[in-house]
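Q: I'm writing up a methods section and want to include an example of the input and output format. Could you take the sequence below and give the corresponding predicted structure tokens, formatted cleanly so I can copy it straight into the document?
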Amino acid sequence: MPVLPPLSRRLTLSLLGSASLATITRARSADHADKVLRVGIMSGEDEDVWRIAAANAAKEGLTLRIITFSDYNAPDEALAEHELDVNAFQHGPFLQAQSAAHGFHITPVGNTYFAPIGLYSQRWKSLAALPNNAVIGVPNDPSNEGRALKLLQGLGVLKVSDSAGLLPTALDITDNPHNVTIRELDAGVVGRALPDLDAAIVNTDWARKAGIDIDRQRIGQETLQNNPYVCFIAVNDEDTHAPWVATLVNAFHQPNVRQALIDVYHGAIVPAWS
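A: Here is the clean output for your methods example:
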């Protein structure tokens, strides 16, 4: 065999490498050529974000059919009944509560974002101004009520029993030095009820839908450090190692999706992957 000169050898290796990469890309696309994933998300801003993720996935031969919901309880049920292949809307404590209540076998496969909940008020300009006997609205579903009470504990408003874990309710309040009243309301209602309350803890997406000025009316907020409430992409247990899972997660974990999250939510949420 003739020995190639150095430049020719490098050029040949480069061409071989390009050909190999093209072959791998075609093979990966072929793997997903007939696969249409039904992805359940909440209606609203996430639709714009997942439109970009779907375009990324399509480049890898994976077609995403985005299905929207307005009821937080519906996407896990639809996934468990195989009406969806994937959902992307929830955090760990919510899935834990849903699985305990309904026996779901659902597994997270990749982080999406962290949406810190906030304590908002139209009547009071700061946490320090919140008076004794204040009425504070919280979401009434188990995971979000627990999250809300944990936030109030972190802000020094009250204390809850450690034995309640991540899912305390108003019945688990052990110390209430300011004699606040906790009013439990549907997650979609609590933000709109803010004018009738001294303050309310509202999920970020519902706060925007309720017309709350997140920067001006927020008097307290969660921190990301050691926070279990990072949202994720989830699949049924039996699909955890399906070949399309890595492609789907990679389609979301792209710079254009990161930028879309920041733009669409106006900086109110934090992309949660490295």
